[in-house]
Amino acid sequence: MWARNSIQQNPANGTGHRMLVANLVAARRLEEARDVTRQRDAVQKTTITELRAMRFFKQDDALERYLSAQREAGVTA
User: Fold this and answer.
1) Verdict on whether the full-model pTM lies above 0.70
2) Between vectors from CA 53 to CA 38 and to CA 8, what angle results, nearest 5°?
3) Gap between the Cα atoms of 48 and 27, Å rounded
C-alpha cells in the first residue's frame, strides 16, 4: 500500500498518514485507523476544518467521503 510505504520512508508525512487512515476506515479496520491517527497527531495534528480547506479532492462527494473517514478515525472538527 502506497500510504504505508510513504509513512515508513518518511514518518512525518501527514498526507501519507491521512490516506492510510481513509483506506483503513474503508476496509473497516477502525482501531488500526485510530492508531494511525494518534501517531499522526503526535507529528502533525490536523482538524477536519483544515483538511476541508486543503481540498485534496476536487469532487465534493469524494472530499466528503474522505472527511467522513477522518472523523471515524478520531480527527476532530
Assistant:
1) yes
2) 35
3) 21
DSSP 74: T
**Distant-in-sequence, close-in-space partners of 6: CB < 8 Å, separation ≥ 6:** 13, 15, 16, 19
What is the spatial distance between Cα 64 and Cα 10, in angstroms, rounded to a whole number?
27
Could you tell me if residue 13 is left (phi over 0), alpha (psi between -120 and 50 degrees) or otherwise beta? beta
DSSP 8-state class, residue 42: H
Residue type, 70: Q
Contact assessment for residue 66 and residue 50, using Cβ atoms and an 8 Å cutoff:
no
Query: Band of the pLDDT at 6, cuts 50, 70, 90?
Result: confident
Residues 31-45 have pLDDT tens digits of 999 999 999 998 889
Separation between Cα atoms, residue 56 and residue 42, nearest integer Å: 22
